[in-house]
Specification:
This is BFD domain protein (2Fe-2S)-binding domain protein. It holds the Pfam family Fer2_BFD. It comes from Rhodopirellula europaea 6C. The protein is mainly α. It has a domain of about 80 residues. Helices cover about 45% and strands about 5% of the residues. The protein is built from five helices and two strands. A two-stranded antiparallel ribbon has the order 1-2. Strand 1 and strand 2 form a beta hairpin. The relative contact order is 0.14. About 10% of the residues have low confidence. The structure holds FE2/S2 (inorganic) cluster (FES). FE2/S2 (inorganic) cluster (FES) binds next to loops.
């Protein structure tokens, strides 16, 4: 009968380390997909913005507001719109996890509300 050999460099040993186990158990990293909303105020999906950039070829990032009003609400998505606009390949740009994106926007909105 063959027995597994305990090798200090095996994958199993690597995952046994506390850091590797924590990383392994972590929720899987997810980035914004084309159908996820980029502008949460006006529910404009990332795909629409990318298409607008590709087809309309806006000269300024502010022209992205003509894409279903993206960025004209609370302003949370403007830095991300800017990133897509400045990217040579907007569809390859890595944007945050949609759940985290929504939670961060909630904090942003609370902060805005408290400042008013
Ligand atoms: S999320 Fe786009 S303007 Fe508020």
């Amino acid at each position: 009968m063959l027995r597994p050999i305990s090798c200090p460099f095996s994958i199993r040993t690597q995952f046994a380390s506390p850091y590797a186990t924590r990383w392994h158990n972590r929720k899987r990293f997810r980035t914004m997909k084309p159908d996820d909303d980029l502008c949460l105020c006006f529910h404009v999906p990332r795909r629409k913005v990318e298409q607008y950039i590709r087809v309309q070829k806006p000269r300024r990032a502010s022209e992205l507001s003509e894409c279903f009003g993206a960025g004209t609400g609370c302003g949370w998505c403007r830095p991300f719109l800017q990133r897509l606009f400045e990217s040579s390949q907007p569809d390859a740009e890595v944007l945050p996890d949609p759940d985290q994106y929504q939670n961060d926007r909630k904090s942003y909105r609370k902060q805005q509300f408290n400042n008013d």
